[in-house]
Design goal:
The complex is a heterodimer of chains A (390) and B (593). Chain A folds into two domains: 28-146 and 288-367, Response regulator (Rossmann fold, 3-Layer(aba) Sandwich), CATH 3.40.50.2300; 150-275, Response regulator (Rossmann fold). Helix content of chain A is 44%, strand content 19%. Chain A has 15 helices and 15 strands. Chain A has an eight-stranded mixed beta sheet with strand order 2-1-3-4-5-13-12-11, sandwiched between helices. A seven-stranded mixed beta sheet of chain A has the order 7-6-8-9-10-14-15, with helices on both faces. In chain A, helix 3 (81-93) runs parallel beside helix 4 and helix 13 (308-328) crosses helix 14. Chain B has 593 residues and is α/β, with parallel strands linked by helices. Chain B folds into three domains: 21-306, ABC transporter involved in vitamin B12 uptake, BtuC (Orthogonal Bundle); 334-417 and 508-593, Rossmann fold; 429-507, no CATH class. Chain B has helices spanning 2-19, 23-49, 56-72, 78-100, 106-125, 127-130, 152-174, 177-187, 189-194, 199-225, 235-248, 255-273, 276-293, 298-307, 335-338, 380-387, 410-415, 433-440, 449-454, 457-477, 492-505, 522-537, 549-555, 573-578, 580-592, and strands at residues 136-137, 143-144, 147-148, 227-228, 342-351, 354-364, 369-373, 395-400, 403-404, 418-420, 510-514, 541-545, 558-563, 566-571. In chain B, the strands form four sheets. In chain B, strands 10-11-12-7-13-14 form a six-stranded mixed beta sheet, with helices on both faces. Chain B has a four-stranded antiparallel beta sheet with strand order 6-5-8-9, with helices on one face. In chain B, strands 1-4 form a two-stranded antiparallel sheet. In chain B, helix 8 packs across helix 10 and helix 8 crosses helix 18 (433-440). The longest helix of chain B is centred in the first third of the chain and has 27 residues, at 23-49. Chain B starts with a helix and ends with a helix. The chains are: A alpha/beta (390), B alpha/beta (593). Chains A and B meet through strand 2, helix 3, helix 4 and helix 8 of A and helix 2, helix 5, helix 12 and helix 13 of B.
Chain lengths: 390, 593
């Protein structure tokens, strides 16, 4: 009985396969995506997925890649390195994707990297900031997000205009927070700026009064703040309660000033934020038309405005891979890897072009993203004067 | 049949990389192997001792970091790392066990959770050692004779070997006196202590072996994923392990293996089957269905389904009275050894200001049957509890010949030959009658943790010897035909006999029986009286608390009467029955009734 049922199913499957249109050339180009879609940072991961889907739909609407549709194979890494490695393995072996975009957190990216090397498949890294990712000699890594050093260098030109003379740091105790303090500290010291204390807070901490008290005692004029937007809100509120009168600069690009205005209110007034996308001023972005289109499409889909500062990464990552596949002329991982070195395009963030980074002979690719500074002024996001002139 | 299946399974496992074409599937199998070791290790604690460790990711992480650091900073080989990982995690297990296992249950859960939390914070903040949240990338693959085992197939065999070893470790432990001690503590801790099982020592041994196994899994993980970061301490890993053990069947050997295979393969199968949005949902539904339909786990359910059609022998086996010719348990007929006197001097116990015993003094002379009687609340059971270490008396002394027993733990007192039973029926309910008796034989075995793990002839011979002794004891109390029945499902009177068998198996020199006849039918009581007599013939002193006057007066040499926490009379049965104060306090009403 059961056997007959099985046979029927098998026959049906076989017939289905035969009837399906053969056209191998029309098979879609699959692109793997590994993001934290569940767990504590699920919001960020999902914004990136939304951005990636916009890129996919735009590509397919504009004739796809040499006539072949783009298909995203999306995997959840659950913010767990083990899952990121498993997801990479699955995407490469089962789905035979020629390239992957991922995997948000540096731990996840680092855990997936041995798999890239094992099978020889390139990955475009869209968010991770740990310096070691491109320094390890993994020639399958192409990063479009700035490592902290690059972000610090990007800010260098504005340091004098921000008027920072003596700075302190407060950062989340993760690879990102620690890397950020190191990088900005080095850059500021080189510029002759005095560096005070560096304080850390655990990811789940809600009371930062001890750290703020210590920072208050140094008598500096500026505080660099590196953490997720929820914790930034808490820090700003507690700083206000302590009457800590400092210029505050948040780093990392995920700070979402719009959300801060909503949640921290007056406490966020006057703060500066390093961002990699300014959805408030698409006209000030390197490709204003693309930026404008992306913001409009995002709104049309009903995605939350706050997500734009993350979502653009998804678009740029997929656009980069698609461009490489187009240049390679086929969806073979090695050909795509070689083509990634030739990619030159302007994404929502700005120009994307890879330069060699890491030990000679096994270099990873690192693009130099554009970096912007915005300020919260009168309860609105504003372009600081020094940015507006550009 | 089952042997054929075993050979087939072994062949399949050994040739797996040959016919499993997809490296992705091999990857899943390797992860499943690592989690099999973890689930087996957690099962030792959760399934066998009944203690829930929610810090198992801590031991796993310690193993991963130890191995990774030795490879990256110390340039040591994988094999040294593996051994050190087991050692480091085992040491942590010992510490946690010593700390937490004096307070068990919820406290153990809390301590293990905090332990994993603290270790995780250390890994994040001790930058110099662990590289903090940046993690340790680039852990090298293992080498064998200088050849790096880079391929998945090679690593598969390493993991397979480790998993099989882990299974064997569990198998050996479970079928040893140590494993029975685990179960005894899970099933009935006071009873286990009464026959000499040392709870702290036993549970610490379980924690050490369990933690060391988790450490091995951590090392295997580190050298496979080749990246270690504080995320290895994720609480989610512990939850996954608990799910594997519970869904597979806790307290079974195969359960954690099945659970680990299923719950490593399931998320990956779902990855292939559906979009990411539905995966978590489907996973949750499978989990809920499993818990709902197979609450005891997959393996116990399959075992039951497997057994049912073959049918069981009806329980109509001869309801054996103890046969007169049955050989009594071999006991050393060394009068000098058996003939110790129990001397109680001025024993006082208070419960919140109420004196349960107000300075009681008496003696139990060697090789007598002595009964302690008195109305309800006279302090009889309290006296038993104080003598055997279950209660700390406020003052007074308990001497066993010239050895002071006051202040010793029940298991140490059992070691000296004083074994008690309990007023309320007290067996190891989920275990077979024979296993109950085997636990009673705990002090008769010599095997220690390491010896048991190593196996060897001495251990096997000891097991065989204990098995024979258990059968002799069962024969003696007339429970031979109940040998394989589950103790908790026996009729009440027979459960009392099981209790007696457990106590006798410990080969007491002084047997303290707390109302052994309570709830027995007339015929059963006759058997009991006969049994107690025959026990005494084996050079055992019997000290008895009992309400049934026919029983007491029929067998006692001496009767001690307690009332309101004081001794009011002491003497041979005839004298007691005539004692005016006793009649007033107790016998009067009872005799008329």
């Amino acid at each position: 009985m059961q056997k007959r049922w099985l046979t029927t199913l098998l026959v049906a499957l076989a017939v289905g396969t035969l009837l399906a249109p053969p056209g191998f050339g029309q098979a879609p180009v699959k692109i793997g995506v590994i993001e934290p879609l569940s767990g504590p940072v699920a919001a960020s991961g999902n914004y990136i997925r939304m951005g990636a889907e916009i890129a996919r739909d735009w590509l397919n609407a504009q004739g796809a890649i040499n006539g072949r549709k783009v298909e995203l194979v999306i995997e959840d890494n659950k913010s767990d390195p083990k899952e990121a490695a498993s997801a990479a393995e699955k995407l490469i072996v089962r789905d035979k994707v020629p390239a992957i975009m991922g995997a948000w957190g540096s731990s996840m990216t680092l855990a997936a990297m041995p798999k890239l090397e094992e099978y020889g498949v390139p990955m475009v890294v869209e968010t991770s900031s740990a310096a070691s990712i491109t320094k390890r000699g993994n020639p399958w890594i192409f990063r479009i997000s700035p490592p902290s050093e690059m972000e610090a260098l990007g800010l260098e030109q504005y340091v004098d205009k921000l008027g920072a003379r003596k700075v302190d740091f407060l950062a989340v105790n993760t690879d990102w927070g620690r890397g950020s303090i190191q990088a900005f500290g080095d850059m500021l010291k080189k510029k002759g700026v005095q560096v005070g204390v560096a304080e850390f807070m655990e990811q789940s901490a809600t009371d930062m009064n001890a750290q703020l008290t210590k920072i208050k005692s140094t008598g500096g004029d500026t505080m660099f703040l590196t953490t997720a937007v929820e914790q930034i809100t808490l820090v700003l509120k507690q700083a206000q309660e302590q009457r800590l009168t400092r210029k505050v600069i948040t780093t990392g690009g995920s700070s979402s000033p719009s959300q801060l205005i909503k949640q921290a209110g007056a406490a966020a007034e006057g703060t500066y934020h390093i961002v990699f996308f300014m959805p408030w001023f698409p006209e000030a972005m390197p490709d204003p038309r693309l930026a404008k289109a992306f913001v409009d499409e995002w709104a049309k889909r009903g995605h939350p405005f706050e997500g734009l500062t993350e979502g653009f990464r998804g678009h740029d990552g997929i656009a980069t891979i698609a461009e490489a596949v187009k240049l390679a002329g086929k969806d073979d991982p090695k050909a795509v890897r070689d083509a990634l070195w030739k990619v030159s395009l302007t994404g929502v963030n700005g120009p994307i072009r890879f330069e060699k980074d890491g030990p000679a002979g096994k270099e990873s690719g690192q693009s130099t993203p554009s970096i912007f500074v915005v300020q919260i002024k009168d309860g609105k996001v504003a372009l600081p004067d020094f940015m507006a002139k550009k | 049949m089952s042997r054929g299946l075993g050979v087939l399974a072994a062949l399949a496992l050994l040739t797996l990389p040959l016919w499993l074409a997809s490296p992705y599937h091999l990857h899943v199998v390797i992860m499943a192997g690592i989690f099999t070791i973890l689930a087996l290790s957690l099962n030792l604690l959760l399934g066998y001792t009944g203690q829930l460790s929610l810090g198992h990711a801590g031991f796993f992480g310690i193993g991963a970091y130890t191995s990774a650091l030795l490879a990256l900073r110390g340039d040591r080989s994988f094999w040294i790392g593996l051994a050190s990982a087991a050692l480091a995690a085992g040491l942590a297990g010992w510490g946690i066990g010593r700390l937490a296992l004096k307070l068990r249950g919820a406290y153990f859960v809390l301590v293990t959770i905090s332990f994993a939390g603290v270790i995780s914070l250390v890994s994040i903040n001790w930058m110099e050692l662990t590289n903090g949240p940046l993690g340790l990338p680039g852990v090298p693959p293992p080498e064998l004779f200088g050849v790096p085992l880079r391929t998945k197939a090679a690593y598969y065999y390493v993991v397979l070997l480790a998993a099989v070893l882990a299974y064997l470790v569990c198998h050996r432990l479970v079928h040893s006196r140590l494993g029975r001690a685990f179960l005894a503590l899970r099933e009935n801790e006071p009873l286990a202590e009464s026959v000499g099982v040392d709870p702290v020592r036993t549970l610490v041994a379980a924690a050490v072996v369990s933690a060391a196994m988790a450490g091995v899994a951590g090392s295997l993980y580190a050298h496979y994923v080749r990246f270690v970061s504080p995320e290895v301490f994720l609480f989610g890993y512990t939850v996954t392990m608990v799910i594997m053990v519970v869904a597979g069947g806790k307290g079974t050997l195969l359960g954690p293996v099945v659970g680990a295979l299923l719950f490593t393969a399931l998320p990956e199968a779902l990855r292939e089957a559906m979009d990411w949005q539905w995966q978590m949902l489907a996973y949750g539904i499978v989990l809920v269905l499993l818990v709902f339909f197979l609450p005891r786990g997959i393996v116990p359910a399959v075992e039951r389904a497997w057994r049912r059609p073959r049918g069981r022998k009806p329980d109509g086996a001869p309801r054996g009275l103890p046969r007169e010719e049955s050989r009594p348990p071999s006991r050393r007929a060394d009068a000098a050894e058996s003939g110790a006197t129990l001397t109680i001097t001025d024993l006082a116990v208070e419960f919140g200001g109420v004196a349960a015993l107000a300075g009681v003094s008496f003696q139990v002379r060697p090789l007598t049957i002595t009964s302690l009687i008195g109305p309800n609340g006279a302090g009889k059971t309290t006296a038993f509890n104080a003598i055997t270490g279950y209660l700390r008396p406020r003052r007074g002394r308990v001497l066993w010949d010239d050895v002071a027993l006051s202040g010793q733990r029940p298991c140490d007192i059992a070691r000296r030959g004083l074994v008690r039973t309990f007023q309320k029926t007290s067996v190891f309910p989920a275990l077979s009658v024979r296993d109950n008796v085997m636990i009673g034989l705990h002090l008769r075995g010599r095997g220690r943790t390491l010896g048991i793990l190593a196996g060897g002839r001495a251990i096997r011979e000891e097991e065989a010897r204990l098995g024979t002794e258990a059968d002799v004891v069962l024969e003696f109390v007339g429970l031979r035909h109940r040998r394989d029945d589950v103790a908790g499902r026996l009729p009440y009177g027979e459960q009392r006999l099981v209790e007696l068998a457990v106590a006798l198996a410990a080969r007491p020199r002084l047997l303290l029986l707390d109302e052994p006849g309570a709830g027995m039918t007339g015929g059963e009581k006759d058997r009991l009286i006969e049994l107690i007599r025959r026990v005494r013939e084996q050079h055992v002193t019997v000290f008895l608390v009992e309400h049934d006057m026919r029983l007491v007066m029929g067998i006692s040499d001496t009767v001690i009467v307690l009332n309101h926490g004081r001794v009011i009379a002491e003497g041979p049965p005839a004298a007691i029955q005539a004692h005016p104060e006793v009649i007033r306090a107790y016998l009067g009403s009872a005799a008329r009734a």
